[in-house]
Amino acid sequence: MATPETRRKPNILITGSPGTGKSTLGQQVADRLGFEFIEVSKEVRENNLQGEFDEQYNCHVLDEDKLLDHISERMDSENGGMVVDYHGCDLFPERWFDVVAVLRCSTEKLYDRLQARGYTEFKIKENVECEIFGSLLEEAKESYR
Ligand SMILES: Nc1ncnc2c1ncn2[C@@H]1O[C@H](COP(=O)(O)OP(=O)(O)O)[C@@H](O)[C@H]1O
C-alpha cells in the first residue's frame, strides 16, 4: 500500500463546491501532467456506484463504500499520478493524497453556474451557503493539518 513517501508520482485531490470548476481544472491538470483523471460523479454513473434514491435532492446518493472499493487499487498503487475531483475530502483515506486543492468561486458566479445547470432553488441555496461559509475549505484544513 503506497504512502506519500513511497509513491513515484503525487496524487492530487481537487475539492470545492459544485460549480467552482473542479472537473474543468482536474481534466486540465491531468492532461498537462499525463496523470489519470477520476471525476467521481462520472465514475459513479458509469460504474453503477449509486446508493439509495434521495427524494429531497431528486437524485441517487453515492454508495461511499462501493466508490472507495472501486478506486482503491489505483489510489494505493506505487505509481501515483492520479487526479481526483470530488466536492469533499473526508470520504477518502488521507494516505491517498499528496496535494489537496480547494477551489473557491464568487457566490454570484456560482449562483449563475448552478442555475445554468438546472439545479433547484433549494439545491442552489444550499451550495451557495456552503461556499459563503467556506465549509469545504474548513473540512480540508481539518483533514490535512
Ligand atoms: N476558471 C474558469 N473560468 C470560467 N469558467 C469556468 C472556469 N472553470 C470552470 N468554469 C465553468 O464553470 C462551470 C462549472 O465548472 P465545472 O468544472 O463543471 O465545476 P465542478 O466540477 O466544480 O462542478 C462550467 O460551465 C465551466 O465551463
Automatic annotation (TrEMBL):
Its EC number is 2.7.4.3. ATP binds at G19, G21, K22, S23, T24, R117. GO terms for cellular component: cytoplasm; nucleus. It comes from the Eukaryota. Its main location: cytoplasm. Residues 39-62 are annotated as: NMPbind. Residues 1-21 are annotated as: Disordered. It is found in: Cytoplasm; Nucleus. It holds the Pfam family AAA_18. Residues 116-126 are annotated as: LID. Belongs to the adenylate kinase family. AK6 subfamily. This is Adenylate kinase isoenzyme 6 homolog. The lineage of its organism: Eukaryota, Metazoa, Ecdysozoa, Nematoda, Chromadorea.
